[in-house]
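Re: the request from the purification team.
They wanted to know what the chain is likely to look like in 3D before they choose a buffer screen. I agreed to run a prediction and write the result into the notebook, where they can find it.
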Amino acid sequence: MIKIVTDAAVRFTSPNFAQKHGVTIAPISVHCGDVHISDGPDADLRDLRPTLKGCEQEIRIESPSVDQIAEIYARLSAQTNYILSIHTSSGLIDSFRNAQKASQQFLGRMDIHVVDSQTTSIGLGLLVQTSVQGMQRGESLDKLVKTVRGMITRLYTVMFLDDLSYLARNQLVSQSQAILGNMLGVIPFLTIENGELQPMEKVRSRVRALEKLIEFVCEFSGVDHLGILHGYGKPTQDALYIAERLRSLYPSSPISQVCYGPTLAPFIGFNGLGAIVLESKEESI
């Protein structure tokens, strides 16, 4: 039996997926002073929004520690010798690095493969879900790892935000650039490239930002899955508009709506919107 571990930034395409399929989720929390808010597949930004908006201190993301992940591996060792541990991009948080360190404690006793997803949220969830499906078909751990690594090269992310101060906090622009950009109504786009957040182009209105997001997805002739990221417990009007437009363009592709939650909020704020695309395998060849 193979056990699958991931972290709390994950989002799935169906409710209670982790519980139904025995996926273990390592904890992540966001800290503002003495306030700690936990992430998880069902977490939204309702509790985090007022806290972080009024936070004058540094907003800190606490990844699962080496000890916490080692404890998970030790607990699972009573059930299996094989673990596939898939984590949020190492360019965003320390989950992957800490899992690597934790796995070293079990060398010679367990076969643990730790994978840097180079993505997060629903992108991470698609990797985990595919692994569960492979495990249910009786595939080996090596086969699952190969499949996941192949999928990572087909996952693409683009997001936009309406407050450049979050870019300044993460040293993607200077404070003066953020202030000027906000004054001018600039809406910047970000992508995840080789696991790192990278600035893309900028537009000057939210309407144009929505169209630009659709244009990004339309660059793909074949799509296996589309994930729409928004900052609320229920899809916003903008998120529904994006989904409707994309559904007309990709009628056979599943589209999932998810709240990106506490882990991504310190990077893109509360009114961000994004898309994660899993390019079809045939088109990526």
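For the purification team: The radius of gyration is 19 Å.
Please add any questions underneath this entry.
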